[in-house]
Design brief:
Oligomer: heterodimer
Radius of gyration of chain A: 20 Å
Shape of chain B: globular
Largest interface: A-B, 38 and 40 residues
Helix content of chain B: over 70%
Order of helices and strands of chain B: HHHHHHHHHHHH
Number of strands of chain A: 0
Radius of gyration of chain B: 21 Å
Strand content of chain B: under 5%
Mean pLDDT of chain B: 86
Shape of chain A: globular
Largest sheet of chain B: none
Number of domains of chain A: 1
Number of domains of chain B: 1
Mean pLDDT of chain A: 89
Number of helices of chain B: 12
Structural class of chain B: mainly alpha
Structural class of chain A: mainly alpha
Largest sheet of chain A: none
Low-confidence stretches of chain A: none
Helix content of chain A: over 70%
Number of strands of chain B: 0
Order of helices and strands of chain A: HHHHHHHHHH
Strand content of chain A: under 5%
């Protein structure tokens, strides 16, 4: 693999993705746009929780829900960011065919397109966490955070999400354009099974195994443990695992998804070329 | 040069006036209903994925020990999100999409009413979405054992009819506004999801919010429509209602008249403005 081509594809796509995401309006309006959507999403859960519990924010369940939902922002952002690039280039800008004949590495180009969504997601996560600490008594003390675990988990988790996004992007090559974003649709589905906003024990017993094979479940647990260790460990879902074991599981699943993404891309890319789908415009 | 007689319409066959208006509505509604049935994967994405979202909120309520009627509130709210999504993406943004794809100029030069085209989009979208919403309610109710106790079928049907009329009227009105937008249209539609779910009380009683927030959110017809329907179909709904059902019906009637009238005036104004500024065929990507 040509290293410079790979690097160039990634960095150029990162810049391009940022322009596409942000230059439709002025910076002030864009900043509001970036934070309102995730804040509203978090506020729905806060209102639901406060109605039922009368505002018992000191319960361990509240930071469990709040932090899980905050970091789940990355799931939609990264997976949708990577997979949406296919639809955006193929159907909207009609440039995917030009990307294919340009001297770039297509998977790294798609991954680069996801970086802007990751950055936007990061701003949203910071705003949600800050609001939680300032107004909702989320017990997040920066001096008590396990920063090493946090950074390693974040890096592994984002890599895992990018690989899942690459799988979705490859599949997107084969499907028509729908009004929804396939990445966000899948992220919405995984919201239920990953223990993001409620412990897996709440699910019926026959549905729990789905959550246990999802790497997002382990990633969110690690993020919670790194930020509010003792509170997070109050729930039995993954209590029997140490941090190191959870990291090992997450790393293993990330590698599995990376391998799957490579084979999925090769197969979908081959089929899309064979069927003439690279420049298809489905106009839904 | 001779014209092809099979293609030419005689004066007696030519449809004009209200017949043309009705035929335009049917013609524009047709692809909305048939097109969605042809793309089978839409059924999966339109029903199964919203069900997962509904299930997630149901399990949150169960995790925090909420009374069972809140599960019913979520199922109802989840079904209503289908209508909001349909209005956002297939009504408000539609003229923008048509412009991007080059169909808008064809609509304008054809000898029919643009109002009829918008009504056709609304009727077709409403019918297709109602089927999906019904499936979500039935499946959600069976999955989570939701029980209903309808206080008045007449009022329930009236509230649903008024809420949908006002909602799709709002969609017709905003379609004209979106006509002048470019990429902003996509981002605005994207933005108007979670914040609206929040202020309109899709997953909790709107009464739980501050009175003035709830009052302001009532400009969106689904806010009061959903609140009134919950009051009419759940035993404890009336206790958690924002306003009385009668008042909410009255406000919905006002919203129907307001949005449909505004849609007509705005459509005329925006069409003239778009023609004058040469925006009907622009595609600022």
């Amino acid at each position: 693999m040509n290293r410079s081509e790979t690097t160039r594809s990634f960095t150029m796509a990162t810049w391009l993705g940022w322009q596409v995401e942000s230059n439709w309006t002025d910076p002030f309006l864009f900043a509001i746009y970036v934070i309102i959507k995730p804040l509203a999403s978090a506020a729905i859960l806060v209102v639901m929780y406060s109605i039922i519990t009368g505002g018992a924010y000191n319960s361990p369940l509240f930071p469990y829900i709040y932090l899980g939902n905050a970091f789940y922002t990355y799931v939609g952002a990264v997976m949708a960011g990577v997979s949406w690039a296919v639809i955006d280039d193929r159907e909207h800008y009609k440039t995917l065919k030009y990307m294919y004949i340009a001297p770039i590495n297509i998977p790294f180009y798609w991954l680069g397109r996801g970086v802007s969504r990751f950055l936007i997601g990061t701003v949203a996560v910071i705003v949600i966490l800050t609001a939680g600490v300032l107004f909702l008594h989320v017990p997040l003390d920066l001096t008590q955070v396990n920063w090493g675990l946090f950074l390693v988990s974040l890096l592994l988790g984002v890599t895992m999400l990018a690989m899942m996004g690459l799988i979705l992007a490859s599949i997107t090559l084969m499907v028509a354009h729908h009004f929804f974003l396939i990445g966000e649709a899948v992220a919405g589905a995984l919201y239920l099974f990953s223990g993001a906003i409620f412990p897996l024990e709440v699910l019926p017993a026959w549905l729990r195994p789905v959550g246990y094979v999802m790497p997002i479940t382990y990633w969110l647990e690690l993020m919670r443990r790194s930020l509010i260790g003792e509170v997070a460990q109050a729930f039995p879902t993954l209590a029997q695992y140490s941090n190191l074991q959870l990291l090992g599981i997450l790393l293993g699943l990330t590698v599995v998804f990376a391998v799957i993404s490579v084979f999925t891309f090769r197969w979908c890319d081959y089929r899309a070329r064979e069927l003439g789908l690279i420049d298809r415009v489905s106009n839904y | 040069m001779q014209s092809n007689p099979s293609l030419a319409l005689s004066a007696s066959q030519k449809v004009t006036g209200w017949r043309l208006f009705l035929k335009t509505i049917v013609a524009r509604a047709y692809p909305r209903v048939i097109g969605q049935q042809r793309e089978k994967s839409w059924i999966f994405f339109d029903i199964f994925l919203p069900m997962l979202g509904v299930a997630a909120y149901v399990y949150v309520y169960r995790a925090i020990g909420a009374p069972e009627e809140y599960v019913g509130f979520v199922v109802m709210g989840g079904a209503m999100t289908s209508f909001w999504m349909n209005v956002l993406w297939s009504m408000s943004s539609q003229l923008y999409w048509e412009k991007e794809q080059g169909n808008l100029a064809l609509y304008i030069i054809a000898p029919n009413s643009m109002m009829a085209i918008l009504l056709g989009m609304a009727v077709g979208g409403l019918f297709a979405t109602a089927l999906r919403a019904a499936v979500i309610i039935v499946v959600g109710s069976l999955m989570f054992n939701v029980t209903y106790s309808v206080a008045s079928f007449t009022q329930l049907l009236l509230v649903f009819f008024l809420a949908m009329t006002a909602l799709y009227g709002m969609g017709m009105m905003s379609a004209s506004l979106f006509l002048l937008l470019s990429r902003e249209a996509w981002h605005l539609s994207n933005l108007a999801q979670e914040p609206i779910y929040l202020v309109s009380g899709f997953y909790f009683p709107i009464k739980s919010l501050n009175f003035w927030v709830a009052a302001a959110a009532s400009i969106i017809p689904l806010t009061l429509g959903l609140d009134a329907m919950r009051q009419l179909i759940f035993p404890s709904g009336a206790l958690l209602g924002f306003l009385s059902v009668e008042v909410e019906i009255a406000v919905l009637i006002v919203l129907c008249v307001l949005f449909l009238t505004a849609a007509k005036f705005l459509l005329d104004y925006m069409e003239k403005l778009a023609i004058r500024e040469g925006r009907l065929t622009e595609s600022r990507r």
